[in-house]
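Predict the holo structure. Ligand: glutathione.
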Amino acid sequence: MVATLYHCAGARSLRPLWTLEELGLPYELKVLPFPPRVHDKSYFAINPSGTVPAYVESGFCMTESVAICEYLATRHDPGGLSARPDEPAYAAYLEWLHVGETTLTYPLTLVMRYTRFEAPERRVPQVAEDYTRVFLSRLRPLAALLDAGRGFVCADRFTIADVSVCYALELAVIAGLKDQLPESVRAYRAALRARPAYARARAAEKAASPAPPS
Ligand SMILES: N[C@@H](CCC(=O)N[C@@H](CS)C(=O)NCC(=O)O)C(=O)O
């Protein structure tokens, strides 16, 4: 039975969607309206926390975007899209995989929440300003690495650590921070977005998206 990925347009589930496309694996894509906990309560039966992604494959379900990417890449392309434990770059690979979600994406979720998702009376500009600063300062190691001439975060090749980090940059752009990204970071994002698998992931997202309410 083919695996199913539950996704919302522009959400972290883009990471496993992109990874599936990089690997050329078959999958069924279900795109839900955001947030599913409000607009599709039947989704709680798949993921009781209501968040995307959920990745369901023969009897198990995973709900952490980076863990799904790691599962897919390690199982289907060890030493390619993932780094193997015996590679010198393995430590950097693990580091950047987690930096992408924990260090870079998390502060942006606070920016999004307190500028857009909360009702106007619950919005807190101070939180958004503070966590924008946190995000931009946490980008410094990435900018330093790119300014030193590297094209990828580790292993001198494209891996899912780049998928993890690039999603944070997508969210930064959605949060309106594009102009505040360092030049080298903007160029890195553009190069990754030019990958055919990224374009296929975005096309699949569009094709499976629910029609907007009329
Ligand atoms: N650490 C999790 C976070 C999952 C998460 O919070 N997803 C967001 C979308 S980017 C979501 O589903 N939010 C809807 C909600 O909180 O109800 C991951 O990386 O997958």
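Strands lie at 3-7, 27-31, 54-57, 60-62. The pocket of glutathione is lined by residues 11-12, 35, 37, 50-53, 64-66, 101 (CB under 6 Å).
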